[in-house]
Specification:
Number of helices: 9
CATH superfamily of the largest domain: Periplasmic binding protein-like II
Order of helices and strands: HHEHEHEEEEHEHEHEEHHE
Number of domains: 3
Structural class: alpha/beta
Number of strands: 11
Mean pLDDT: 88
Strand order of the largest sheet: 7-6-8-5-9-11
Low-confidence stretches: 1-31
CATH topology of the largest domain: D-Maltodextrin-Binding Protein, domain 2
CATH class of the largest domain: Alpha Beta
Shape: elongated
CATH architecture of the largest domain: 3-Layer(aba) Sandwich
Helix content: 25-40%
Distance between the termini: 74 Å
Strand content: 15-25%
Radius of gyration: 23 Å
Amino acid sequence: MKRQIIAAAALSAILLAACGDDDKKSSDTTAAADQTAAECAAGKTVTDGTLTIATGEPAFPPYVINDATPEDGQGFEAAVAMAVAAELGFDAANVVWTRTAFDAAIAPGPKDFDFNLQQYTISPERAEVVTFSQGYYTSSQAIFGLTDSPAASAATLADLKGLKIGVAAGTTSIAYIEDVIQPDSEPLIFNDNAAAKEALDSNQIDAIVADLPTALYITAVEMEGTTVYGQIEGSGTDEFGLLLAKDNPLVTCVDLALTALKESGELDAITTEWMSDYVEAPVISLG
């Protein structure tokens, strides 16, 4: 009987401790919800008092207009980054920009930046080795190439099968080519969109697959004689998130900042200003 009493007491203590843990977790969650993004971010950056933001080398329009000075906020992602920085309590003087290759930032391991934005699509595979914020933009995949190509009038994926298609390394566009378009030849993978554009210009490839805003900007501004053949039906589920080191506690603060920007309408205003010209294109049917 004595053993039963001791066991019951032990079980009761365990249950009370568990309840205490639950109460603490609930209290912590409530406290986090009551914090501002700036209060949350205090002491959580890689360099105290400074926010380090990473982008590509180079960084491409319409995401960063002036590659040399993204801190000017010119371009969609440059503007989003600086707005998040402000919510986190950092003015332009306390923001430092650094550069990474697209696929290098997705690799496992520590990061020398607080967050990175280069149109990183949130995916379960990537989330195994890095941490993502909530989404800040959703895009379709698109295919573009020379205006005088027979594929310029493509209406279905069957019209794209015979093309030699190029794509930037590390992007989800590779999966769309291999799994959805399924061309007759393997896609050619380049270090970045700049290298893919050179290959298109020299007729090494027939077309490039990229996110729709990138495709529309390149064809409208950067490469004369090119056009967007179309956005791929059903591909508009690529949600971009800010990329952080795995399990970085700063993500809670970044999410608070993005939530504030959404609720205030500032994120919508930034999106309208920089992306409204880069969303319209014909749809290439799956069937």
